[in-house]
Amino acid sequence: MGLDTKGFTPVELTDEQLAEMREEVHDRVIVARVGLLLRHPFFGNMATRMRVQNCDDWCPTAATDGRNLYYNTQFFNMLTNKQIEFVIAHEILHCVFDHIVRREDREPRIYNIACDYLVNNLLVRDKIGERVDQIQIFQDFKYDNWSSEDVYDDIKDKHDDEELEALGQLLDEHVDWEKDGDEGEGNNAPGAGDKEGKGKGKGRPTYSKDELKKIRDEIKESMITSAQSAGAGNTPGEISRMIKELTEPKMNWRELLRQQIQSTIKSDYTFSRPSRKGWHTGAILPGMNFAETIDICIAIDMSGSIGDVQGRDFLSEVQGIMDEYRDYNIKLWCFDTKVYNECDFSADGADSLLDYEIMGGGGTDFMCNWTYMEQEGITPKKFLMFTDGYAWDSWGDPDYCDTVFVIHSHHDKNLQAPFGVTAHYETQEA
Questions:
Q1: Which residues contact 81 (CB under 8 A, 6 or more apart)?
Q2: Highest mean predicted confidence (pLDDT) among 134-138, 222-226, 284-288
Q3: For the domain 253-425, what is the CATH code?
């Protein structure tokens, strides 16, 4: 996408003059990275993991793809070293906040403006480098602590194109990862220059979707490593919170499920059902008194995307639930586009889960479970669905009952159901 840089106009230079300027600017970029490393270690560590690339042919100011820092020689030449630090940190924040991918189908220019407001606000507030004033950039503290999506909506509602022109300018070239990934196969990546990054650019980088996923994973890893290297207190609060979410272990799905099931039980302690713990010492301890038994329905997705091995794995998790509790009433069935083989299991019953036959193998219709429950007059206190998350037309009825989606993570570890509670797990083979 293009960039209006009214405050910067390249001048005609001889090949010799341009070569000399490239050499000088490249050295200043390296100096700026060192400056960030000393004064703002998180940004400095992130920057040192990026290759410096001169790209005068396509980049009017600066840009990044997460692996490379691209810059225009003449634009950087008019900046101070601390302003170069500002621009480098600006690029890093676009990567950290995953701005380009989050754009989705929003109007690119307005969304890019929204992202620049947030990035520039953080840099100015935390005094990262020195604000670029050679051009009028987008920066306004009224958007502090907003999301890029909320800023986008605010800008779109309040300003027309002419007003946007008067507000400011994009500081950098926002490389459109998603678009480029769809249009190219990565032949131009990583982009430009000789091995030192001082030469003439070859063109705008393009990446395949698989390569983009790799880059995003690399950025996350770089964030974690850079924060660790920077030490406590040297990473902006917003980024620290993001890294905490990335590094903290997610709750074991079985523990989450246990909490969900326990919420349906009114329990207390009683001597009428003494606990077996402590019998060997002669002590009689109170046991749990379940005023109600566990009353849940479990549906196992057996559509065409689910194999018999995965189906049996789902079934073993159901057995684990039964082993966990002394009192339970469980309705179990399989489904694809309709419900199969409904069976009732209870702690006092003689039915064996080992004999349960998994059935299905057709298309996928999650809604068939809710249709079935309504037709049969079934209203469980908790409804569990074991699935790979490949819903067809609808995930189901969010208002019918409390629902927990237990999604096998082999395909997508970030998939979230639109309602209820989502838990992820994966087998050893996944």
A1: 28, 31, 32, 35
A2: 222-226
A3: 3.40.50
Rounded distance between C-alpha atoms, residue 254 and residue 327, angstroms: 18
DSSP assignment of 102-160: HTTTS-HHHHHHHHHHHHHHHHHHTT-S----SS-B---GGGTT--HHHHHHHHHHH--
Dihedral angle over CA of 310, 314, 320, 323, nearest 10: -120
Q: Where are the alpha helices (DSSP H) in 140-236?
A: 148-158, 161-167, 177-183, 209-230
357-396 pLDDT, tens digit each: 888 888 889 999 999 999 999 998 889 999 988 887 789 9
Residues in a beta bridge with 300: 334, 386
Strand partners, 267: 290
Q: Give dist(CA 361, CA 336) in Å, integer.
A: 7
pLDDT at 253: 66
Instruction: Kindly provide the b/e burial profile for residues 343-352, where b requires at least 16 CB atoms within 10 angstroms of the residue's own CB.
Output: eebeeeeeee
- For the chain, give every domain's residue range: 15-247, 253-425
pLDDT per position as a tens digit, 68-83: 999 999 999 999 999 9
Amino acid at 72: N
Could you give the strand order of the β-sheet that contains 62-64, starting from the edge strand earlier in sequence?
A: 51-54, 68-71, 62-64
Q: pTM for this structure?
A: 0.56
